[in-house]
Amino acid sequence: MHDPSVLALGVALAWLAGVRVYLTVLFLGLAGTFGWIALPEVLQGIASPWLIGLCALLALVEFVVDKIPGMDGGWDLLHTLVRIPAGAFLGAAFIGRDHRLGGQALLAGGAVALCSHLVKGLTRRLINTSPEPLSNWSASLAEDALCLAALALLAAHPLQGMSIAIGGSLLVALAAAWSFRATLRRGVRRTEATA
C-alpha cells in the first residue's frame, strides 16, 4: 500500500505537468538536487544541470508566450504532445508500485495530466473570446501563481499542494465560465437594445 502523501505528490505532479510542464520538471529537478524530495530511481536524471537549465529556459519562454492571446492557444495545442506524456511519466514514477512505470500507473498519470491540460485549454479558449488582453494576462498570471504555490507546498505538504493545484485550476475554470456567460449576456442585451 502506498503512503497517501506519495500518491498525492504523483497526482499533483501529473496535474501540474498538464498546466506548466517545464516549470514542474524544473521544480522537480531542483527538489531532487537540493534533497527537498527523494526522487525515485527512474527520475534521477531529472536532476541533471543540463535538464534543469533547459527547463528554466523553456519555462521562461512559456511564461512569455502564454501571455499573448492567440499564441497561447497554439502553444497549448503543440504542448498536448509534451504535457500529457510528461504528466504520465512524472505521475507514474510516484504512483507506480515500487516507483516503477507500470501500465496502470502511466495511464493514471496521463489521465490526470490530460484532465488538467483540457481544463487549462478550454478555460483559455473561453478567456480568449474576451476582447481585452487583460483577462488573458490575468488568467496566465493566475496559472503561474497557482503552479508556484502548489509546487512550493509539495515538498513539505503534498496533500495540500495537490489540493491547491487541482482546486485552484477548477476555480479558475469556473471563474472563466462565469465571465464568459456574463459577457454573452451583455452582448445579447446590447443586441436586443439596438434591435
Question: Quick recap of the structure?
Answer:
By secondary structure, this protein is mainly α. The protein has helices at residues 4-17, 21-34, 49-65, 71-78, 80-95, 103-128, 134-154, 158-194. The chain starts with a helix and ends with a helix.
Which residues sit in consecutive blocks of at least 5 with pLDDT less than 50?
none
Largest sheet: none
Reading the helices and strands in chain order gives HHHHHHHH
N/C terminus separation: 65 Å
- What class do helices, strands and sheet pairing give? mainly alpha
Rg of Cα set = 18 Å
Nearest-integer average pLDDT: 82
Number of strands: 0
Using the alpha-carbon principal axes, give the shape: elongated
Number of separate helices: 8
**Strand proportion:** under 5%
Measured as a percent range, the helix fraction is: over 70%
